[in-house]
Design brief:
alpha/beta, binds pyridoxal-5'-phosphate, four-stranded antiparallel beta sheet
Amino acid sequence: MSDRRLLLTPGPTPVPPEVLHAMAEPVIHHRSPDFAAVFRDVVARLREVFRTQNDVLVFTASGTGAFESAIVNLLSPGDRVLAVSCGEFGTRWQRMAAAFGCEVVPLDYPWGETPQPSHLRESLAASGAGTVFLVHSETSTGVVSDLEGLLAVCREAGALTVVDAVSSLGAVPLETDAWGADVVVTGSQKALMTPPGLAFVAVSEEAWRRRETGKLPRFYWDWAAMRKAQEKGSTPFTPATSTVVALAEALRLLLEDGLEAAFARHVALGRACRAGIKAMGLELYSPDEDRAAVLTAALTPEGVDAVALRLALRDRHGITIAGGHGDLVARLFRIGHIGYVSIDDIASALTAVEEELVAAGVELEPGVAAPAARGAFGTAAAA
Ligand code: PLP
């Protein structure tokens, strides 16, 4: 068993040492001036990251909870919701809306495909749905959608939008206000470089207006109660105070470098990881494009078990990567390059994959993946 612990899943993600130190500070009370100061700073910085002037609400929850808050604040039983899915998370939101008694109009793609604005336009016209659910980065496949194009279609049709940006915000460009997204949901544990436990919802004026008509019951998730408490520098219920303190540090680090630098780093890491995978002769499953900068998904060679590969990486190299789903569970693996991840991390993971494939009897030239990755990273970083 290796002593090393390298977390290269698409969430949770590694956390910078400064953030871990902040997490270890003495616990503060959530109705104290100390907390109010940190909390106000966090909310202001989150607005910068969302690129919005709208309210950003902070829930102690995972991303799924924050998405549920959107459903119970905006919708009523029987409301028609068009929910786009090209993977696990799109389907989760369809199931969630159905669980609350909404009429779900699915716009489904085979897993791994990229949603098209033209299809959305047709589905919206045919269904007349007043609300649309979109997933920006479908973490189960690595597809990052043309969110700007999809949102433009929704605006044309006058539909309210709820965007799952759980694995995208802070990794790839997302302009909440400029692209006209009504509600954007994300979590602390991905590109925001913070441990799991907090989730955020940006809410537009239009969404606040819609909330007035939503008839689903709400209590913990009530946006109005949260906004009222946040105006006083707190939350209605006890928040994960230490995680808020850690997040303040993570957002400071992120914004000190700048969002554009973060986006460029993710593009470079994505290029690097794909270059390494291709150099090994493996088949990419995630799209071979710069926009797919959140994670790289690939297939093992025929006959090589991806589950065994992941276990070998964990047990012999101390590297945790993610697996696949459904029919692809035996072949698919996913390497996350979100947040606090370096080219050295990616090169190590690729070298470990290469070593384990050779050990499994795959004929490949060892030692090619890391140099290919470093070369692609260097070229991207210099551009
Ligand atoms: N949406 C996407 C795109 C995700 O990647 C995830 C988590 O991996 C979620 C939603 C769910 O978030 P959570 O596990 O924080 O509830």
